[in-house]
User: Fold Pyruvate dehydrogenase E1 component alpha subunit from Arthrobacter ginsengisoli.
Amino acid sequence: MFTDDAGKGGIAAGGPGNSAESNRRSGGDLVQLITPKGERVSHPEFDPWVQDVNDEQLGALYEDMVVIRRIDAEATALQRQGELALWPPLLGQEAAQIGSARALRDDDFVFPSYRDNGVAYCRGVQPESIVKAWRGNALAGWDPFTVNVATQQIIIGSQTLHATGYAMGIQNDGADSVAVAYFGDGATSEGDVSEALVFAASFQAPVVFFCQNNHWAISEPVRLQSHIQIADRAAGFGIPSMRVDGNDVLAVMAATRIATNRARHGGGPTFIEAVTYRMGPHTTADDPTRYRDANELEDWAAKDPIARLKSLLERKGLLTEELETAVAAKADAVAKALRAGTINMPEPQPLDVFKHVYSTPHAPLDRQQDHYSRYLASFGDPAEAASEEGAR
Assistant:
């Protein structure tokens, strides 16, 4: 539906990053194409990159964001009802995830964090697969190579190293695809991220570092760990950066297209700071009221990414009853599929723990599996053993 090559006329293959304008962007000003009130504003450098986004596609972006917010709400409810062990909400970050994901090509490879479920949805991951790991039924919910999305990383920032290594492989293959690493503001204080930036800059790897600055690293505010704009950190590694309004789906899309185009044409890595806000808890085990001012939440609610795009659609006369009905129906259908898939998900069997550990036969693992199989057999019928254990 969207391609990153659209609208590149007038923009150098290297993309922004070496001009005075790019320096301004990495400072206090955010690139913005849609205001919080839903007004479309012009930006001469970024406008060409979204000039192909027509009325129908604006409606599709709106649908994407409504659907993933519904996925988020349904998964949160499932966790509260005991169907999931944990869930990391993305409420408020819909534009950052949808705008960037819809700017990628199918052959690009995504390396997400645990919160990037909207990106997974855009890449074709089925709703029930998104929650498999959170239900405890699998170590990963999907085969990475069927959707070009790596398994979600719990270890903060480690996916940036994976993305950089993959990007170096792309270079060796002579391809023009791009690796994209998603992470939060808290991850930028991790050593893994610094190491990834060093390697990416040294080898001019075709990788995009996409930081969703949601202002809170669990309970620590971003101002505590970074006394400068996060985008400015990239300059120390020789990597150009952009700082965009992360609640503006068009600005995010334009920035991602610029960065991926730059990577495809040998321009090396780019760092994008999408300034957004985590409106919910860090996870469903967190209580943000213990560390966050309610007034701050209220201020950011006025910048809601979905309300913003909805206002733009209204201004353009595009928010018809038919569109709203279709979007609501799609959100309901996805939520229904998520709930049914979660509740009816087959329980893993004891020996499943040995699956997918190695891609080729592995004698020590086979020996362990044999020992464990004989151990389980010592209890007799597995169903009876489980029943007796439950009774005890």
Residues 2-27 have pLDDT under 50 and may be disordered. The first helix runs from residue 20 to 25.
